Amino acid sequence: MPVFTTPFASLDLYRQPPQRDDPLQAFDAADEYLLNHLAEQGLASDARVLLLNDSFGALAASLAGKAQVTSSGDSHLGALALANNLACNNLPADSVQFVPASQTASGPFDWVLIRIPKTLALLEEQLIRLHGQLAPGARVVAAGMVKHLPRSAGDLLEQYLGPVQASLAVKKARLLLVTPVDKPAVASPYPSRYLLDSPPLALLNHANVFCREGLDIGTRAFLPHLPLNLGTARVADLGCGNGVLGIACALANPQAQLTLVDESYMAVQSSEENWRAALGERAVTIRAGDGLAEQAEDSLDIVLCNPPFHQQQVVGDFLAWRMFQQARAALVKGGELWIVGNRHLGYHAKLKRLFRGVEQVAANPKFVILKAIK
């Protein structure tokens, strides 16, 4: 395990979820560049520091105990990684305050260090929320790996905060140095909304929700084939996004008991608001989680899933495979995992390794809907 060494600390850091022989690190050169810059500028022990989108806690763990540190991001896995990395390095759990992106961190802050997220709508919402949260003379620095740093990120920083100066690239990382100026408060364009014809729903989507502007094509293929006549079955929408699969299933199965889970706090927030709009006070469990890791074994009858094929910038089926394993553990014998996936991903073969039966429910030229039986 590579050690992350900066002027602030030398740390053993781990990604979340854990993966055997993981070739990827929990930090990168942009984290290192940010912390080196902060050390050069000088950090007072009473400084209030806000960290945005610190993926696995590399920045927060490095600064823990060196200042008053608040970390905010939209990933529950990121929050788990931060807690784990603090513990692994014998740092107090309360040395960093974590604020989910569904809430607003409370300033004023002397420093704001930003890792540019993959979804620029999330960055825009975060910058809008910074209005009135900066202390006099506050400094704002954003960072990213050059290959993941779009020009529009700098445009957003300039639009909402002030002039931006780009640094030289170091180890393929770059800093964007912002000079905050007084700007009027701006109304956020988020959440956004779109209408669904069948079932008829108005769906609200907070800034970091997948396919925020319209229903993704995988879910569109899945919706007409959701299971019916479920009675009082216990059903989970795993990786629920804005909650559309779980809500549609609940509408079609009035007595079913639904659980909606996502690792994005903004997805959970969107699901909660969409559920109430569509189903009022009908009982439901909606939570941020590491998939079904916290779900009791043999406690579900049906799991619905449109699995992701990436974690931040990393593409692969690791998360999907893990979700399939979690679903199998949580399902009763005879329980069913229903998924939609791109044909080329070969989920049929993967599911056969875990489940005693796999059936194709439907297909089109791009997607396949599968039912795996435990």
Pick out its properties.
374 residues; alpha/beta; Rossmann fold; 2 domains; 7-stranded mixed beta sheet; 10 helices; globular; nucleic acid binding
How would you sum up this structure, described in words?
Residues 310-315 have low confidence and may be disordered. The chain starts with a strand and ends with a strand. The chain has 374 residues and is of the alpha/beta class. The chain contains 10 helices and 20 strands. Helix 4 (120-129) packs parallel to helix 5 (151-160) and helix 7 runs parallel beside helix 8 (265-279). It has a 7-stranded mixed beta sheet with strand order 5-4-3-6-7-9-8. A 7-stranded mixed beta sheet has the order 14-13-12-15-18-20-19. The protein has a two-stranded antiparallel sheet with strand order 1-2. It folds into 2 domains: 3-178, Rossmann fold, CATH 3.40.50; 192-373, Rossmann fold, CATH 3.40.50.150. The longest helix has 15 residues, at 265-279.
